[in-house]
Write a structure and sequence with these properties.
468 residues; mainly beta; Immunoglobulin-like; 4 domains; five-stranded antiparallel β-sheet; 37 strands; disordered N terminus; Ig-like_fold; Alpha-galactosidase; membrane; transmembrane; A-galactase_NEW3
């Protein structure tokens, strides 16, 4: 016999499906990949391996050693004398497994005069979706010794379930011998739960009791959802949260829109979309329809870096408030401003002139880093920048760059363009400058020289030929 099979027979047992009247089903449903089901005081986790036709089953119990086995569809796995786990089928497309978990018959609360007895006066209750339902469970310790019981539960509706005793949340309870205590099983149903009966199993050690909640209708008029509830933005950025309202009723409803918990001097506005200028105080949603909104948060420019929490509130016509907790992390923002004394200059061929460029960090908190200038000028022009680069400009500080420009000596008089681009790790800006080149006119000098030559020529001719 293979060693693996021998080990499985010793600690538990895997067997093909066969009739077994000694067990009663306590959980029969689909389980998502990675789900953990609580059954008969044990915790059973199902894992579907990619591409595998088997299911990896992990079983934990406070009273027995943990076990991990692989079970194929159509086979059982017996976990000591506590559970029989049957894998019905695997849905690879939906990443789910259909399972049936059973316990030995008669393991539910003992009704005899010895052992432990579980009972509930109201094991089935009616509720609206979203209500909190309370089941009082009597634990009767008929043993000849005091006992501390471990409490747990399971339900296919994935509701939040807790045990309470008085005003305390508990997961264990102490009951002296031949005495009883009442603990409350608190169930928080959800507004999205479908109408119908839902089963909840309460476990007290290895014993259990079945409880039922019948959802008669949804208790919520609107379902509120957001694409994201937490954002990271720089100071000065626009901040938007996308919110979707779904009317769960068969009639048109008007919902009021608000926000609570904003710090002082912060503002909010609901809009149709991020480009809209119109603010909304309420919105009309058709019967069973949906509406998409944008919530814009506007902090003051003087806001500090840090984490902020606030709540989007949607109020239904009956006054019910549906809330969404939102968070915002603001990080340091930077801004760049580039100024000069003028944008137009005059120069002569071959003569240099300076352009002073003032770069300031108009942001809050963070510095502009690795700031330098890139220049563009006509061919033959000489452009030098001082300093070549600065490592950082702190928020509120200004750095002056001097750009020395020398046009060629043989350039034609005209208008020319010089471009200066300021670059950094965070931002960049560009400015264009007009440079007018003016040259001196030599025509008057040439004309004067020609007139002088004519006069000198006439005098020479007069002296030479005038006496004849």
């Amino acid at each position: 016999m293979p060693l693996l099979a021998l080990c499985l027979i010793i600690s538990g047992m895997i067997a093909p499906v066969a009739a077994d009247s000694g067990y009663e089903t306590i959980y029969s449903d689909w389980a998502d990949n990675g789900d953990t089901v609580t059954a008969n005081g044990c915790y059973v986790k199902f894992t579907i391996q990619n591409g595998s036709s088997n299911v990896y089953v992990s079983v934990k119990s406070p009273s027995y050693p943990d076990k991990e086995v692989t079970v194929s569809p159509g086979n059982w796995y017996y976990y000591y004398n506590l559970l029989r786990i049957y894998i019905v089928e695997i849905d690879q497309a939906k990443n789910k497994v259909l399972v049936d978990i059973a316990r030995p018959s008669g393991s539910q609360g003992d009704t005899s005069s010895s052992g432990t007895k579980l009972s509930c006066d109201v094991p089935g209750q009616l509720a609206l979706g979203g209500d909190i339902v309370s089941f009082p469970i009597l634990i009767q310790n008929n043993n000849d010794e005091d006992k501390t019981y471990t409490l747990s539960s399971s339900n296919s509706a994935k509701w939040d379930v807790t045990f309470t005793y008085g005003d305390k949340g508990i997961y264990k309870v102490y009951v002296p011998k031949h005495q009883s205590k009442v603990v409350n099983l608190m169930i928080q149903t959800t507004g999205s739960t479908s109408v119908g009966e839902k089963k909840v199993i309460a476990y007290v050690d290895s014993m259990s009791i079945d409880l039922y909640v019948y959802i008669t209708s949804v208790n919520q008029t609107v379902d509120v959802s957001t694409k994201v509830t937490s954002k990271i933005s720089s100071i000065g950025d626009k901040i938007f949260y996308d919110i979707r309202l779904k009317n769960l009723q068969s009639k048109e409803n008007i919902y009021k829109l608000s926000v609570t918990g904003l710090p002082e001097n912060w503002y909010f506005r609901y809009k149709e979309d991020s480009t809209s200028f119109d603010e909304m105080a309420e919105v009309i949603v058709p019967a069973s329809g949906e509406k998409n909104l944008v919530l814009e948060i506007v902090p003051p420019y003087s806001v500090d870096v840090g984490d902020y929490n606030f709540i989007a509130v949607i109020t239904s016509p009956d006054g019910t408030q549906i809330t969404k907790d939102l968070t915002l992390r603001l990080k340091s923002g930077v801004g760049m401003s580039v100024t000069t004394s003028k944008l137009a200059y005059e120069a002569k061929p071959g003569e240099s002139f300076n352009i002073d460029v003032y770069v300031s960090n108009t942001g809050k908190g963070a510095a502009l880093t690795n700031v330098y200038l890139e220049t563009s000028a006509p061919t033959g022009w000489i452009v030098q920048v001082s300093p070549n680069q600065t490592n950082s400009i702190k928020a509120g500080d200004i750095q002056t760059f001097r750009v020395n420009v020398v046009p060629p000596g043989n350039i034609v008089a005209s208008d020319y363009e010089v471009s200066i681009k300021v670059k950094s790790d965070q931002a960049e800006k560009e400015k264009d400058f007009r440079v007018t080149i003016k040259t001196e006119s030599y025509i008057p000098y040439i004309g004067g020289a020609m007139i002088l030559l004519v006069v000198v020529g006439l005098i020479f001719m007069f002296r030479k030929y005038g006496r004849r």
